[in-house]
Amino acid sequence: MAVGEAVFPRMSVLDGLRLGTAEAAIKKPGRRDLVVVELPENTAVAGVFTRNAFCAAPVHVARDHLARSAVRYLLINTGNANAGTGEQGMKDAEYCCGALASLVGCAGEAVLPFSTGVIGEPLPVARIEAALPRALESLDDSSEAWQRAGEGILTTDTRPKGATATCQIGGQTVTINGISKGSGMIQPNMATMLGFVVTDAAIESDLLSSLLRETTQVSFNSITVDSDTSTNDACLLMATGRSAQVSSPKEVAAFRAALEEVMVTLAQAVIRDAEGATKFVTLQVEQARTVQEARDVAFTVAHSPLVKTALYASDANWGRILAAVGRAPVDDFDVNAVTIDLGAVRLVEHGGRAADYTEEAGSREMAREDITIRILLGRGESAATVWTSDLSHEYVSINADYRS
Amino acid sequence: MAVGEAVFPRMSVLDGLRLGTAEAAIKKPGRRDLVVVELPENTAVAGVFTRNAFCAAPVHVARDHLARSAVRYLLINTGNANAGTGEQGMKDAEYCCGALASLVGCAGEAVLPFSTGVIGEPLPVARIEAALPRALESLDDSSEAWQRAGEGILTTDTRPKGATATCQIGGQTVTINGISKGSGMIQPNMATMLGFVVTDAAIESDLLSSLLRETTQVSFNSITVDSDTSTNDACLLMATGRSAQVSSPKEVAAFRAALEEVMVTLAQAVIRDAEGATKFVTLQVEQARTVQEARDVAFTVAHSPLVKTALYASDANWGRILAAVGRAPVDDFDVNAVTIDLGAVRLVEHGGRAADYTEEAGSREMAREDITIRILLGRGESAATVWTSDLSHEYVSINADYRS
């Protein structure tokens, strides 16, 4: 299941950047499950990684390589997360990096590994190694290569996720292309399951890193399917430097806006393709004392199984939204100041049901695929937006059957 | 659905305490939905109530009456929570207390009101008022009256929940009887949905209150079905004073042990009857730095939809348990020190799968109805136990259909 239609966008070529894929039969045969991304020399790379304490072996290795070396290749597999695999998992991730490095003639630490899939199974390194030559043969810079790479990183996702944007910097067109994956075990904490965003702009490394962190916060760190932060979350922002330099405040602002558009589109695509999703839900919390408070309220509502099942049923059960808001971790909470709107319909005011609310109006809004719940706390000036999905029978089926 | 068999226990008579029920057609006709409990004079009463900021009108009124007056009657309805009902809800709750008071000849504030059911609908006061005489006529002190009262407070619960225990105090037998209800919207915070526990012991009011708070923490505050703290949670502990006085440290210890047995049994009964439950799951977290840390880890695992769906599927998907432990809010978390057992089988040690783990052994444990997950954090001496249920198709069905 997935919400709405999604067309993989037409991606512009980024000079020097190529993507290759192969079928390595990592979990099962007959699907694209191995992706190699080749970066041009001198590409600046910034990364954010999961804060799950049980983070996966490739996360450890990618973080380490990124700190020590320039990056030339990304090696991404699906079907196996190489997480909960202890020391052997670390060796396996290093081994795969080394195998790719020896085929292309670079240092092993110039390769960053990423894995996604089932947790706790040994990584099938022999199958990955055997498929590497085919992935390298297919390296290509076309839009089709981006789409194949987008497909090659999926797990329970039903469709590839891509986004692209351009902006004008110093008279030159700068392009930003990105792909992401993720459908379940989604409450990213500093990253999504996997996101890879590349620009041809030239961006100094500290600036690149802060741009990634800022836009991650309002995109991948603002989505949740099921509150389960993955062991393998990672998001990279890469700048090849073949186009204009981004450095003045005005240039940074223009670039940031385009980057945020790409990041938010990719994050929303994860929610639209969430496991079992039939609804795409925007939670806008306003008039909070702090952004963190607004986020806390939004995530409390977004994680409520009772709100999520009501959304699935298209039932305007506003009492459940009110109950979830009421249990959010907010100090000195005056519920009489709270207002809750469902789309264009006011649900709650003065601590109870809005005076002119009707069940018909509520049901009409709830029947939509795209639903916005706006919660005004009446106690400050801060706001936050979080996106989530509903909780359906299909979500339970997918996750009760995933390993079988 | 519910886990295992449950027999309502044989309750001893508590001198002077009577329970009555009636069919008031509050939500729909043909079911017992109104309960009156009559307490003997001079009964000491302690209460804990929901911390949900949007707490229901009866919670406000019960808290207020309890602070101002001796208590003679409890008036409990199901089918309507009288929550999210603003000023009118407060008036309605007071009105019902007054109606009962005028029939029995006591002050309105000697009545404590409790409601459970759908949020946001006006309380049908006329129907409650009309049914009060029938509830009073049925007042009785028998075990059957306790069971009828247990039935009269249910919502989506499939069976009444009772517990009883005795202890010897100063050569006299002291009895503790209790009933509870709750099946969904369960992560009590200072109380369960509704719990009523009565003893014939004589207990001074401050001691009664601290006994209630202490035993609530390890019973109703240690269960979760779906992380949704209700607007109507309340738990009362009442001491009629007709039997022995509990005051010396030794007497308090004996009484506390019996009380904890009743409270834990009632709390566990809520989980065994959780919405859609097919499993009863005990999460034992040990070797934590603080009890709060142990509780945080236990609740993080207990709330994980991916762990809960794996439990439903009887799938020993230990990677999901590991991932949930890893995202718990624990500082300086060294995952290499963590050990996780599923029943008698070691799942995780040294940051990965236990050396002698086999899928067969894991699946055998996971197939049971009663499952214990033991998580040793390896960083301290504190422990906590939390009980939860699984996440099934039936849970989604119940909550997608609840209002229809």
Give an overview in words.
Two copies of one chain form a homodimer. In chain A, 34% of the residues lie in helices and 25% in strands. Chain A is α+β, with helices and mostly antiparallel strands. Chain A has two domains: 18-272, L-amino peptidase D-ALA esterase/amidase; 280-401, Roll (Ubiquitin-like (UB roll)). In chain A, helix 1 (57-68) crosses helix 2 (86-104) and helix 2 runs parallel beside helix 3. Chain A is globular and about 70 Å long. In chain A, 60% of the residues are buried. The interface between A and B is large, with 66 and 65 residues. Chains A, B: This is Arginine biosynthesis bifunctional protein ArgJ. Chains A, B: It comes from Modicisalibacter tunisiensis. Chains A, B: The active site is at residue 192.
Outline the secondary-structure elements.
The structure is a homodimer of 404-residue chains.
Chain A (H helix, E strand, L loop, with lengths): L17 E5 L11 E5 L5 E6 L7 H12 L4 E8 L5 H19 L6 E8 L6 H13 L5 H10 L8 E9 L2 E10 L12 E6 L5 H13 L5 E2 L9 E6 L9 H24 L7 E9 L2 H13 L1 H8 L5 H9 L12 E4 L2 E5 L2 E2 L5 H8 L3 E7 L5 E8 L3 H9 L3
Parallel strand pairs in A: 4-5, 8-10, 9-16, 11-15
Antiparallel strand pairs in A: 1-2, 2-4, 3-10, 6-7, 7-8, 11-16, 12-13, 12-15, 13-14
Helix pairs in contact in A: 1-2, 2-3
